[in-house]
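Hey team,

Filing this mostly as a record. A colleague (T.K.) asked me to run one chain through the structure pipeline before their review meeting, and I want the input and output archived in the tracker in case anyone asks later how it was produced. No errors, nothing strange. Just documentation.

Input sequence:
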Amino acid sequence: MEKLDYEIKNIVGNILDDYGKGKTIDHVEIFAQPDAEIVKDMIAKLMKIVFPGFFREKTYRFYNMDSRLTVIIEDVVFNMNRQVAVALMQSDAFKDKTEEERLAAAEKISIEFFKKIPKIREYVETDVKAFYDGDPAAYNKNEIVLSYPGLYAITVNRIAHELHLLNVPLIPRMMTEYAHSKTGIDIHPGATLGKYFFIDHGTGIVVGETTIIGDHVKVYQGVTIGALSTRGGQNLKGVKRHPTIEDNVTIYSGASILGGETVIGEGTVIGSNAFITESLEPGSRVSVKNQELNIRNSEGKSVNQQNWFYII
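Output structure:
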């Protein structure tokens, strides 16, 4: 036992010494970072505000909607004020400000954010309709709200996007990455999403920071809407690196659309596994020729087929 204690003291000493070597990961100011658990709790409560009849309270009992909404909003505002104030320490504009000044700024941000809730709900309502109209496997809209990962990821993004527009550091990305971890759908909070956005299945979808997506767009699993190249690193910060997708575009599974100058024209349909790095005029149809299939029957004889796959 004494030997073990001795070894543990040595291990602790070695690690503490390593913390003093000036690496980025040596940062130990725990209370200078937003709390991930509180951010997740805010997401859960904001979902109850966006969908007031779908997610029940486990702790409190309410007699009417007014009292329920008041308690939830007060709770989120309280936590948002403090978490945003902490996050503002990461901003060059606020890093030298006092805690009182950051709290005052955070309160203004929280108020402006909550003014955007009706807009968020307006857009989410169109998303629910797009999911229902676009998926014959959906038996009703309740099923979509309660179980569809695509709608969850879109809703969290719409919440995070409004905080992003208010120049809140860290928290919007923490929100969308939490949704990413739950759904496999990676939408940067900077991405602009139009109304009636439909993500089917969803796993593996990537939507980059400067993406602009119009109305009535459908995206299937495995789609990447990304940058053509990121070799420029931090020099590309603020540059339009991701595509613009105009209204009424459908993008099937596995397609990649890349580049900040790439514009996918209205009404275009892009087939599975297409690789697009240039703009497409409105109404385009993109298809990919299948690879040759090598098929053998039960007798071991080769039956080769070569098929063409078109999306019309």
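Quick notes for T.K.: Helices lie at 2-19, 36-50, 65-87, 99-115, 117-134, 141-147, 149-165, 171-183. The longest helix spans residues 65-87.
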